[in-house]
From TrEMBL:
Enzyme class label: transferase
Alphabetized Pfam families for the sequence: CofC
Quaternary structure note: Homodimer.
The protein's name: 2-phospho-L-lactate guanylyltransferase
Entry keywords, A to Z: GTP-binding, Nucleotide-binding, Nucleotidyltransferase, Transferase
Swiss-Prot/TrEMBL catalytic activity: (2S)-2-phospholactate + GTP + H(+) = (2S)-lactyl-2-diphospho-5'-guanosine + diphosphate
HAMAP family (UniProt xref): CofC
Annotated GO biological process: F420-0 metabolic process
Gene name of this polypeptide: cofC
GO molecular function, one term: GTP binding
Segments of this protein annotated with the region Disordered: 1-21
Length: 218
């Protein structure tokens, strides 16, 4: 298998994480999204991927980046089109809000399927609510279709083009951070900048009524 698989990390820094508007101000959402991105980039590098930002505006980060302000699906497919030929040049697509991602969890995307030496045309790590949190695309005809239950849509696309699919069932990769309740997952299992950011901002776990939620004391 190729040593360094390129990993595209889509990122929209202008108005990120609107579903956290009840909990974080716009400036806080930008800072928190940036912290999650830092964790994902570090974990990808630790897993031997070559990360590349696909961002709607320049970030100034010390990482290779493509600026493309088209909608997510269009931008990812355009990046796939100019990437090297498949299947020799696989392309991973890993979302920037996987705050629990670790090198070990991401390395599972690079594994082989159960058949042993056969490498899947598409490897998918689904999100908990039917999204597609991470992908590795090898089949030359596979194109993404994000939003909604994109996991099911991607299975359908793979079937239609005859691409084999390998699924990575990983709690860390399935947990994208979208809503207030997801912040508890970061406090419980996060190991990086996103967890530190929440703690510094005064968030803590609240188990007062026997259920786990978050509270802000700062
Ligand atoms: N390049 C690019 N990345 C995007 C775009 N929309 C979302 N993303 C990124 O795709 C990943 C998944 O995003 P979502 O959780 O669906 O959207 P979000 O904007 O982060 O959050 P919400 O506003 O709550 O939907 C995150 O890494 C986003 O930064 C886009 O239009 N272009
Ligand atoms: C991009 C989208 O993310 P979600 O809206 O599920 O967080 C998806 O995974 O299709």
């Amino acid at each position: 298998m190729t040593d360094h698989v390129d990993a595209l990390v889509p990122f929209a820094p202008d108005r990120p994480k609107t579903r956290l508007s009840d909990t974080l101000s716009p400036a806080e959402r930008r800072a928190f999204a940036g912290a999650m991105l830092s964790d994902v980039l570090a974990a990808l590098a630790g897993a031997g991927f070559a990360p590349r930002l696909l961002t709607t505006e320049a970030t100034g980060r010390d990482v290779s980046e493509t600026v493309d302000d088209r909608p997510l699906t269009e931008a990812v497919n355009a990046a796939r089109d100019v990437h090297g030929p498949a299947p020799e040049s696989p392309l991973a697509v890993v979302m920037a809000d996987l705050a629990l991602a670790t090198p070990r969890a991401l390395a599972r995307l690079r594994g082989r399927d159960d058949a042993g030496d056969r490498i899947a045309g598409v490897t998918i790590a689904p999100g908990r609510a039917g999204g597609t949190n991470a992908l590795v695309v090898r089949h030359p005809e596979f194109r993404v279709d994000y939003h909604g239950a994109s996991y099911l849509d991607h299975l359908r696309v793979a079937r239609d083009i005859g691409a084999s699919v390998r699924e990575v069932d990983s709690r860390r990769l399935a947990t994208d951070i979208d809503e207030r309740a997801d912040l508890a997952e970061v406090l419980i299992s996060g190991e990086g900048a996103a967890r530190d950011w929440l703690v510094d901002a005064g968030f803590e776990l609240d188990t007062g009524d026997g259920r786990v939620s978050i509270a802000r004391t700062g």
